[in-house]
Specification:
The complex is a heterotrimer of chains A (197), B (202) and C (319). Chain A has 197 residues and is an all-alpha fold. Chain A is 70% helix and 2% strand. In chain A, strand 1 and strand 2 form a beta hairpin. In chain A, helix 3 runs parallel beside helix 6 and helix 4 crosses helix 6. By secondary structure, chain B is an all-alpha fold. Chain B is built from 9 helices and 2 strands, in the order H-H-H-H-H-H-H-E-E-H-H. A two-stranded antiparallel sheet of chain B has the order 1-2. In chain B, helix 3 crosses helix 4. With 319 residues, chain C is an all-alpha fold. Chain C is 57% helix and 0% strand. Chain C contains 14 helices and no strands. Chain C is globular, with a radius of gyration of 19 Å. The chains are: A mainly alpha (197), B mainly alpha (202), C mainly alpha (319). Chains in contact: A-B, A-C, B-C.
């Protein structure tokens, strides 16, 4: 059990997909405008990641090496389609907010990256916890970034206006602001990392 | 089909809603491969080729397969399969025709499969140029053109970024921001400057 | 010898132009600051005392920002080399006269921190820091950044700039070329008084601190496009109006010419100038914003490394 916990925690801090592995950026930056969207995308991607990690780990022995990437993609795409349909059915506003980035989970570097680098070589249980850890790590990163962007960029948090008379930094809601926030956060985490050494 | 629409597609895809700097598609490869100009250009040209070709193929599939059979919910799977197959095919062809060229492209070719920009433009085309399941007039040509322009926009961002990063490579930048953080900040400023094309009307 | 741009262990040797001769970096900065003084004086006269505060706050914030960052990161203090002051000054010059006090402060901090220090300091920045600050402010608080006031009326009555008026398709009345030249119009602090700006520009040109290779092609391109495509059909554009309006003179002579962020070679500089002119003209004529100088220069800043790469001087003696 301890080993599984270790797998799980690894995805959150030491190998956080967003801040350490620098993967899956496309949706991160686009979707992190508000915390709700961030959480929504995080959960959707986590579901796909978990499902695909498990299945790919299960079938790793049967998949021929040459065409493994397209096979993984089929598996991932299936989970994405399920997620897409579920979202359309149970939360149309979230689906609209996330837009094309829901189908784009298919090519989310995190999902395919973990499949190729890990799930195709590890046991099912390890892959399960890895998927969980990475998913949680991704979601936390999304929450952090969107909290900053929503708070400073729109003066709100989770849709609630916080201060009156606070002039929000509008640019943070835009792509440029997103790139800036992530650049500064990456730099900040680097400083922390260098301090530790 | 009119010239203004083409111009709008061009300005949008290349400058205003630049696939990398505004839509964030293709960021992974952008940050990873934009360190030097030669590989950046190689990747860009490959991407442009794939976006153009996949725009054509995905349009045909959407129009003549998915819509008539009411299978539009399979859009994601079918598009990505098409792209993955096409890239695999291109890889095989290049390998046969010109092994040196194949070696030159190296890992970039398979990477294009997961380049969000490629799937992104396919999905964009079907969103923009089909209304309620019917193709708008000129839809096919617009889609191909958008595929080309998205490739151009990708190339522009890559070219500018690689030039900048090559120059910065010769300098002492602060350790904390070396490589990735600085790349993002540069992209942020570039994205800011591209805002100048907002509200473009011809 | 061209001033090395923070390139480690590499000196870029070029034949000519030797723009800076034996002058040090610091002296150039201070000379540019000096040449911008007339424009500032004119602005205070045109828009009133609050203008002076914006300028002072901009300059002081820039200096403090640089000081704080350099102390924090244990680097050499360069706050007195004039470059931070120049950045703060230019940032202030790019603001409307009656902005809230925190705007130039935040703008200067951002300009110094993100536009300059994050790249490693002077000589290594890719983008003009003052413009980075300005564009950041523009995107964050567009309402404040476009609230312009009437000239020679110290009550801060709002009025639109001439470029904004024609962008809306309205006819400009009661603004003559002389008005534009002297600064009797709404606009940013440092851009309105062309006369004062030209005084400074001529000083810099005569002393050799800037060369004509960027500003003249820049202005010429804008004028040409304005002439050909200006609103009333082909070849009937009011090019004089376009050259005298907006931030073109300020941008062309004082910001596009920043030697760190513009190309090294003469040919490259001309290309740079034309590129700036092209983009400025396109935004002014067909874009959503009335003015495009800041965006144009920043975009060309990004292209400078590539321009340099393809216009490098050939070393004598080789093919």
């Amino acid at each position: 059990m301890k080993k599984f916990i270790h797998e799980f925690l690894r995805g959150i801090i030491k190998e956080n997909p967003t801040f350490v592995l620098v993967l899956g950026l496309c949706p991160t930056l686009a979707v992190s405008v508000s915390v709700i969207n961030g959480i929504g995308m995080g959960i959707a991607a986590s579901f796909v990641l978990l499902g695909s990690n498990i299945i790919i780990s299960l079938i790793k022995k049967i998949v021929p090496g040459r065409i493994r990437i397209p096979c993984y993609i089929v598996v991932i795409a299936t989970f994405v389609t399920i997620t897409e349909m579920a979202m359309k059915a149970y939360s149309p506003p979230l689906n609209r907010a996330l837009g094309i980035y829901v189908p784009l989970i298919v090519v989310n570097c995190i999902v395919l990256g973990r499949a190729e680098a890990y799930a195709s070589k590890a046991t099912v249980m390890n892959s399960l916890f890895d998927g969980l850890g990475m998913g949680v790590g991704f979601t936390l990163a999304l929450i952090l970034i969107s909290a900053i962007r929503e708070f400073l960029g729109a003066g709100k948090l989770l849709g609630f206006t916080l201060f009156k008379g606070f002039e929000p930094v509008f640019v943070l809601g835009m792509p440029s602001g997103a790139l800036l926030v992530i650049g500064l956060l990456l730099g900040f985490f680097n400083v922390l990392k260098n301090r530790k050494v | 089909m009119d010239a203004a629409q083409f111009l709008t597609i061009f300005i949008s895809a290349v400058f205003l809603y630049n696939v990398i700097l505004s839509r964030f598609l293709g960021l992974c490869s952008f940050v990873a491969i934009s360190k030097e100009t030669k590989p950046a250009l190689a990747m860009s040209l490959s991407v442009m080729f794939v976006t153009t070709m996949s725009s054509i193929i995905t349009w045909l599939i959407y129009r003549f397969l998915l819509i008539p059979f009411g299978l539009t919910y399979l859009r994601t799977i079918s598009f990505i399969l098409v792209i993955a197959t096409f890239v695999q095919f291109v890889e095989m062809v290049i390998r046969k025709i010109s092994p040196p060229m194949y070696r030159f492209f190296g890992i970039y070719l398979p990477l294009i499969t997961v380049n969000c920009a490629v799937l992104g433009v396919a999905v964009l085309n079907s969103d923009m140029f089909f209304i309620q399941g019917k193709a708008v007039p000129g839809s096919f040509v617009y889609s191909i053109f958008q595929g080309v322009c998205v490739g151009l926009g990708y190339t522009l961002a890559m070219l500018l970024m690689s030039g900048i990063r090559e120059r910065l490579d010769l300098c002492h930048v602060p350790k904390a921001v070396k490589d990735f953080p600085l790349a993002f900040i540069i992209a942020s400023i570039m994205s800011l400057s591209f805002l100048g094309f907002n509200g473009f009307r011809f | 010898m061209e001033v090395s741009r923070g390139v480690k262990n590499k000196l870029i040797v070029s034949a000519s132009p030797h723009l800076h001769k034996d002058e040090s970096v610091s002296k150039i900065m201070w000379m540019v600051v000096l040449s911008l003084m007339p424009a500032g004086v004119a602005a205070v006269f045109i828009f009133g005392m609050p203008t002076l505060w914006v300028i002072i706050l901009g300059v002081i914030s820039a200096v403090i920002a640089e000081g704080i960052i350099q102390i924090f990161t244990k680097r050499k203090l360069t706050v007195f080399d004039g470059s931070a002051i120049l950045t703060g000054l230019l940032l202030a010059y790019n603001l409307p006269p009656h902005v809230p006090f925190w705007l130039p402060i935040i703008g200067s901090f951002f300009a110094i921190a993100i536009g300059k220090q994050v790249f490693g300091g002077l000589g290594q920045n890719i983008f003009n820091p003052a413009l980075v600050g300005r564009v950041f402010l523009m995107a964050s608080w567009p309402n404040y950044m476009t609230a312009f006031t009437k000239p020679l009326n110290y009550d801060a009555i709002t009025s639109a700039t001439p470029l904004a008026i024609i962008k809306e398709g309205k006819i400009l009345e009661s603004v003559s070329y002389l008005d534009l030249f002297l600064g009797k119009r709404g606009g940013c602090i440092g851009e309105v008084c062309i006369l004062a700006l030209l005084l400074g520009a001529i000083f810099l040109l005569l002393k050799g601190y800037i060369s004509w290779h960027i500003p003249i092609p820049y202005i010429f391109t804008v004028g040409l496009f304005a002439y050909i495509f200006g609103h009333q059909g082909l070849f009937k554009g009011d090019w004089i109006f376009h050259i005298l309006s907006g931030g073109l003179i300020l941008g062309a002579f004082f910001m596009a010419t920043d030697y760190v962020t513009s190309p090294l070679t003469r040919k490259g500089q001309i290309i740079f100038g034309i590129g700036c002119g092209l983009i400025t003209a396109i935004i002014r004529l067909w874009g959503g914003y009335p003015e495009g100088v800041s965006y144009a220069i920043l975009m060309m800043n990004a292209a400078t490394p590539i321009i340099d790469r393809y216009t490098k001087n050939r070393i004598y003696g080789t093919k």
